């Protein structure tokens, strides 16, 4: 007799068979999920594009010819172009150290990497105000040497780096921990150097994880609002990224231009989602066992 509830296991159950819910329950859950998806994702996206094109294509494209809009797009792309490579380098190094070595303070380092996930982006921006503001720790020295961090491009980049640096590392750490270090140790035993081992053994195994993390990091960098809003100063044509430019246009009741720029952000989000799905599909495909090699 089975000690759990006094029940005997069914002998005719197929090992590994999954339990399935009744058809009515499945369709109910699917319907609820689709309703939430439509209300909270598809409907807002449709509203953005509808408002952007309300006065026709001419007004829509005119919003992107505005010098302030062009400047915000350039600054957004510049910020992402600087932050993503830096976070990529940090993420790979951090994941390598955490997955391949044991050392005191390892758990504390992982906690620090997760810190931006738990801290409000506004608080992240205020940290830089505390550090680089006129009354901050380094403010007097920066002012004496005519170095501008706050209300300038460097402050925007620093704030964006802070809120985005966990993405690549957090994708690679579990992946590299699951792979272990047997292949790297075998390569070293066979005479390969450290860089040769990384580029020929480690990198091919984590390339899709890197791409996945880069996609998420880039999406957050281009869409970041809270931290950037605190450190930017909202200088039109100078320190406004695309999200900040949308806010200014909306507050000025220039709805068509605001939703036009917002639609561009939405399209970037959709492209990011498609790229993310493709990478997930490729990762799942590579993880499937090859027939005959199970």
TrEMBL record:
<feature type="transmembrane region" description="Helical">
    <location>
        <begin position="27"/>
        <end position="49"/>
    </location>
</feature>
<keyword id="KW-0472">Membrane</keyword>
<keyword id="KW-1133">Transmembrane helix</keyword>
<keyword id="KW-0764">Sulfate transport</keyword>
<comment type="subunit">
    <text>The complex is composed of two ATP-binding proteins (CysA), two transmembrane proteins (CysT and CysW) and a solute-binding protein (CysP).</text>
</comment>
<dbReference type="InterPro" id="IPR005667">
    <property type="entry name" value="Sulph_transpt2"/>
</dbReference>
<keyword id="KW-0997">Cell inner membrane</keyword>
<dbReference type="GO" id="GO:0015419">
    <property type="term" value="F:ABC-type sulfate transporter activity"/>
</dbReference>
<feature type="transmembrane region" description="Helical">
    <location>
        <begin position="119"/>
        <end position="137"/>
    </location>
</feature>
<feature type="transmembrane region" description="Helical">
    <location>
        <begin position="253"/>
        <end position="275"/>
    </location>
</feature>
<keyword id="KW-0812">Transmembrane</keyword>
<dbReference type="InterPro" id="IPR035906">
    <property type="entry name" value="MetI-like_sf"/>
</dbReference>
<keyword id="KW-0813">Transport</keyword>
<comment type="function">
    <text>Part of the ABC transporter complex CysAWTP (TC 3.A.1.6.1) involved in sulfate/thiosulfate import. Probably responsible for the translocation of the substrate across the membrane.</text>
</comment>
<dbReference type="Pfam" id="PF00528">
    <property type="entry name" value="BPD_transp_1"/>
</dbReference>
<feature type="transmembrane region" description="Helical">
    <location>
        <begin position="75"/>
        <end position="99"/>
    </location>
</feature>
<feature type="transmembrane region" description="Helical">
    <location>
        <begin position="149"/>
        <end position="169"/>
    </location>
</feature>
<dbReference type="GO" id="GO:0005886">
    <property type="term" value="C:plasma membrane"/>
</dbReference>
<protein>
    <recommendedName>
        <fullName>Sulfate transport system permease protein CysW</fullName>
    </recommendedName>
</protein>
<keyword id="KW-1003">Cell membrane</keyword>
<dbReference type="InterPro" id="IPR011866">
    <property type="entry name" value="CysW_permease"/>
</dbReference>
<dbReference type="InterPro" id="IPR000515">
    <property type="entry name" value="MetI-like"/>
</dbReference>
<feature type="domain" description="ABC transmembrane type-1">
    <location>
        <begin position="73"/>
        <end position="274"/>
    </location>
</feature>
